[in-house]
């Protein structure tokens, strides 16, 4: 693993592989850099992948106080450490981090946001009751149960078979160990409000990915961002939901790589 130091002194780790123009991957809640393992071979045949561990999981450090701003600074630190402008790809909460990072770096070639959690609680992305359930389980050191509540109640498109498969994988213990990060990220959605004026300053080419079978909040998010980000377009991943990079890696990789080629 390679590392950079973020603005607040936290060490952020990332794994590098492949050859070609730089592509920085930012995983969602309850994940780490291994979230991209299924799709990385297809990407690394054409680009250099930088798959980071967001703070509080994997090889990255953490701090006593948490905020979305620190997360955005972490992503920007990785992007700024590269020798040439990069494409930045963020998924779900990682997409939110990537969007916020885009206004904090001048080293971007382009931006890919896959169903970022931009809409506020009033739009159905956040449930105080679910957050309270997760918090109670974590307070009782029932990390695995808390993580399962999040996966079942919040993550769209993850079936029980998918959850069972994840539980039996080698990465599950690390997911359970980092379950405390789930609550703090989920709570962030209760107060987050996208700054449209700031968004209009993100002028790099931006691809907004949305699953063809995803719910209304994700569709509305893509539409709102398309109206705000001045150089953006929407691409629909047919017959997919929130985990297309895992469920249909070839489809997902083709869409991303085509966009990278178009924007070089």
UniProtKB/TrEMBL annotation:
InterPro entries: AB_hydrolase, AB_hydrolase_1, AB_hydrolase_fold. Pfam families: Abhydrolase_6. Residues 23-254 form the AB hydrolase-1 domain. PANTHER family: BLL5160 PROTEIN, HYDROLASE, ALPHA/BETA FOLD FAMILY PROTEIN. This is Pimeloyl-ACP methyl ester carboxylesterase. It comes from Haloferax larsenii.
